[in-house]
Amino acid sequence: MRRTSSNLLLRITDICKVHSVGVAENIGEKPKDGSTGGSSEDGAHLKIYPHQVSDHESCSGTSTARYEEAVVDKLLDAVSGLKLAYVKVQQAHVPYDPEKIAATGEHFVSELEEAAGLKDLYVSVNKWSNPMYRSQMSSKIHELQKLALELQADICRKDSELALLRAELEALEKSNMELKEKVDWRVLRRENKFEIGKGGSIDMFVELFENSSKCIHDFTKLVVSWMKVSGWNLDFSKFPVDKSVVFEKRSHRKYCVEAYFARAMLMVTGEEYFSMDCFDHVMSFEDPFDALVEAQNSAFGRFCREKYLVAVPWSMEDSLFGNLDHRAFVESGGHPRTQFYHAFARMARYVWALLTVARYLKPRAEMFFVKGGVQFQKKHMESVPAMLSTGEAKISVGFTIMPGFKIGCTVIRCRVYLSMLNTQDS
Q1: Confidence (pLDDT) at 25
Q2: pLDDT on residue 403
Q3: Strands of the 404-407 sheet, one edge to the other
Q4: Phi, psi at residue 28, to the nearest 5°?
Q5: Long-range contact list for 205-212, CB < 8 A, 24+ apart?
Q6: For all residues of the chain together, what is the average pLDDT?
């Protein structure tokens, strides 16, 4: 119910009863008898909290009077709060208490700031009671809504442009990748071009060994990347090693694959595949596949076909490509013109050249492997990857990655993987 003028007058009279000077310590305390009446000493603590109203109601012209009354109620509350806060400031002086004076002073300032804010509230109520002001605000709201719709349309347009630009970017990235592959391929062809006309020598053999080892490593890297895509699990693959070998890192299992290809490509092969008569001719091509196209059934061509069927079993090919087309083409006497077979032919040419020169050297180059568990020796072995941090006496070989060669008194070190397990047990 709305308050009457008499009630408002009683409220103002009650507030005015509070004394600001000559106060006692019990001013502001509630009466002990629990009565709700107030005297000059106990009326200062009384506060009446007016009905809280929403902003929606304040926008309605029919509620203007109610909100003006609410503002008056808040003003009376603020005056009451100021008087009570001032009384507490005076109490803090009797007896004199600096800390209490500071605290009550801050409280008095906060009450004063709250009372000052009622001016803005009153002005706001009067604004919304003015029909012209409400009309202006309504027009402003409609303008902002229209602007919001325009911004939303602009956002949709920008999203469409962004989608087109993203598609264009993906196309450019794909084109860049293709160009990069072509550039890398040409650079690789230049790097892999072998200098011919040297004849069979130890220096040539060492160079061929380095190139063969690099090509086997590169082909292994390509196969491992395809294995990851096809879901081939290296833990249960066709590249077994001794179960006692513990890998320093999980990624080091790729060395099992590299060791497999090195053994498959370098192990015993028929003598009819090797001839120094066609050595310079085969090595003169920048692209080894050109040599295969020119003479598919040459010694090098037959070597490629035999080693492909050995090194890339049908289970691997089926897992990588989902078919056996490469294998069928090779078995029929051809050489597939694919990126995968190009990489294999590049590796096969250097292995073929290495084995060819090995047979014509005097003394003949002899291949050797190192068994697992053998103590590591720098004279005959090279650690791949780098040497472990433990002492040499505690390091043992896990398996051979790339076999070594012995030519008379010259030793080309083999490349081995060191076993963590044997290191700990020894």
Answers
A1: 44
A2: 94
A3: 366-368, 404-407, 410-412
A4: 95, -10
A5: 205/354, 205/357, 205/358, 205/361, 205/365, 205/405, 205/407, 205/412, 206/412, 208/350, 208/353, 208/354, 208/357, 209/354, 209/405, 209/412, 211/350, 212/347, 212/350, 212/351, 212/353, 212/354
A6: 77
- β 381-383/410-412 pair status: unpaired
pLDDT of res. 220: 93
Per-residue pLDDT of 17-68, as tens digits, reads 554 444 444 444 444 444 444 444 444 443 444 444 444 444 444 456 676 6
Q: What is the pLDDT of residue 276?
A: 81
* Terminal-to-terminal C-alpha distance of the chain: 96
| 272 touches 356 (CB < 8 A) | no
Nearest to 121 by CA among 69, 181, 49, 84: 69
User: Which of 11, 18, 12 has its CA nearest to residue 39?
Assistant: 18
- With CA atoms as reference, report the closest residue to 226 among 336, 318, 364, 130: 318
pLDDT tens-digit series, residues 263-309: 999 987 777 788 788 888 888 888 888 989 888 888 899 999 999 99
CB 212 within 8 A of CB 354: yes
| pTM score above 0.90 | no
Contacts of 184 (CB under 8 A, 6+ apart): none
Residue 218 has a pLDDT of 93
Structure token pair of residue 88: 């507490």
CA distances to 53, 141, 188, 272, 361 from 199, in Å: 104, 92, 24, 20, 10
What is the identity of the amino acid at 334? Answer: G
Domain residues of the chain, as ranges? Answer: 5-129, 140-191, 196-425
Structure tokens at 351: 């292995």
pLDDT at 32: 43
β partners of residue 419? 396
Look up tokens 């060819």; give the residue: 356
Is 15 strand, coil or helix?
helix
List, for the chain, all residue ranges whose pLDDT scores fall below the cut of 50.
Answer: 1-5, 9, 19-62, 189, 191-193, 196-197, 236, 392-393, 422-426
Token digits for 188?
Answer: 């690789």
- Kindly tell me the burial class for residue 284, based on how many C-beta atoms sit within 10 Å of its own C-beta (0-12, 13-18, 19 or more): middle
Alpha helices in 192-243 (DSSP H): 202-230
Q: List 383's β-bridge partners, or say none.
A: 416
What is d(CA 263, CA 272) in angstroms, rounded to the nearest whole number? 20
Are 376 and 392 spatial neighbours (Cβ–Cβ below 8 Å)? yes
Look at residue 204 and give its three-state secondary structure: helix
Pairing of strands 381-383, 404-407: unpaired
Ramachandran angles phi, psi of 48, nearest 5°: -115, 125
